[in-house]
Amino acid sequence: MCKVLKISRSLIYYKPKNKRKDKELENHIIRIFKESKNNYGSRKIKVELAKIGYEVSLRRIRKYMDLNGLGSNYTVKQFKEHKATCNEDKIENKLNREFNRKEKLDVI
Q1: pLDDT tens-digit profile of 3-51?
Q2: Is the dihedral of CA 10, 13, 18, 22 positive or negative?
């Protein structure tokens, strides 16, 4: 069809950007970031945007965050205490085992 009309294929597939939607999305990103008290990163913002009905890539969210100065310099990294669960139990010595040997292979 493009050959017959002698036009470029890119003219058919070209989609102009809707700047109003982009500005609306940018406002949502800023609002979500401020409501989270500067804690949310791009991943959590993506989840919140999905709840509203936006399907946006992480790359695009990061781009808008960087343009507005909401990048990693402004987020608060929270410390989570890690609790080790394996090999931490105090086990009672029920068999009265003694491992302090004087000679190699010497049994007490």
Answers
A1: 888 888 777 776 667 778 889 999 999 999 999 888 888 899 999 999 9
A2: negative
Tokens 């979500």, residue?
Answer: 32
* d(C-alpha 11, C-alpha 29), whole Å: 32
pTM beyond 0.90, yes or no: no
Tokens, residue 79: 């410390």
Q: What does 49-100 look like in DSSP terms, one character per residue?
A: HHHHT----HHHHHHHHHHTT-STTTPPPPP------TT-S----TT-----
Tokens in use for 63? 């781009």
Instruction: State the distance between the two ends of the chain, measured CA to CA, in whole angstroms.
Output: 95
